[in-house]
Amino acid sequence: MKLIKQKQNCSGCSACASICPNHCITMKEDKEGFLYPFIDDTQCINCGKCKSRCPVFQQRKVQRKPKAFAAYSKHDSVREASSSGGLFTELAQQVLQSGGAVFGASFDDCFHVVHTYVQNTQDLNKLRGSKYVQSSIGDAYAETEALLKEGRKVYFSGTPCQISGLKTYLEKDYENLVCQDLICHGTPSPKVWRNYVRFREDTAQSSAHKISFRNKTQGWQKFSLLFQFINGTEYRQTLDCDSYLHLFLSNVCLRPSCSNCAFKGLDRQSDITLADFWGVNQMMPSMFDDKGTSLVIVNTDKGKKLFDSISDSVIVKPVDFNQAIQYNPAIGQSVEASPKRESFFTDLEKEPFEEVLKKYGSDSFSTKIKRKTKGAIKQTLSSLGMLDKVKQWVHR
């Protein structure tokens, strides 16, 4: 039996499977590769806990007065290894150094993305960096609860739907829990990611030993997807040239619920929200050097306390909240569903993956022309000293 009949209503947060006292709910992949809860009717005792802890059925309402900051780590090595300004690392290290644990998304040995936790700074690198794939929660909620009940401090990083899933699972607020979410574009299919990893390894004729979604060799704003292979070769392409990133940013491989996300908005369940501070070069040029700047949104007093505790390790400047989110509209807006989404997943079932990439993983000729034209206009405005004024007018 299905718990939620309409797939667009399920984020795959796994709160229902985690809370089931009889372990009769399992998260199973559908044909698109997304996890959904299925109930074994023969084991179900009709306790109703699955629905009472579902963040879609039981949406928690909060009122926040968020404050925004531009920030980046003072430690160049941390910043270089991070997707943006290294704030996740600095915050997480503070918790670990006080004897706490940190949860986040990590690659397993097969480069599947799973939620796990670390208890020392040496292992923190597993959780660092963006993973543009929906992670499997597994036992992370139950493990979090166990650590909290031991009195340990826990820093839990995840998507807004995962944070909401954790909060409804726990059903109570813990003073020793700090939740950090992110400004989420949407979650791509793990099945598509697995196919892409296999495609890259077949092309290289070697297994991958390292993958980074946000390599900064060409700068923070023009980040690259990087594969390094055991045979010594590597694949590196910027966001405008890589096929997988194109699938992600064109929305064809995102979860159905992402186009009508129940967890968008300014009143967030998390204590802290982290994101790339896109637009910082226009708003606050002194905080921009193309090495990565984080947008930090402090939502609660608990979040403020942790953020203040790392003041010696970061460069920070306050910023007008409303102005900052103009450049980061995904904080409150769901992505538009791609008109090609249905045909993409149909072709994924029937055609070789390489053909699917050729068809959906690159721009059409007309789109390339539009992009080049846009680039030429931007270059001309910049040379005339008018680019900043035009951008300010556009974002009014």
UniProtKB/TrEMBL annotation:
Protein's UniProt keywords contain Lyase: no
Top-level taxonomy: Bacteria, Bacillati, Bacillota, Clostridia, Eubacteriales
Methyltransferase among keywords: no
Organism: Caproicibacterium lactatifermentans
SUPFAM superfamilies for this protein: 4Fe-4S ferredoxins (SSF54862)
4Fe-4S ferredoxin-type domain span: 1-30, 35-65
UniProt keywords, alphabetically: Iron, Iron-sulfur, Metal-binding
Protein name: 4Fe-4S dicluster domain-containing protein
Family annotation (Pfam families): Fer4_7 (PF12838), FrhB_FdhB_C (PF04432), FrhB_FdhB_N (PF04422)
Sample GO molecular function, one term: metal ion binding
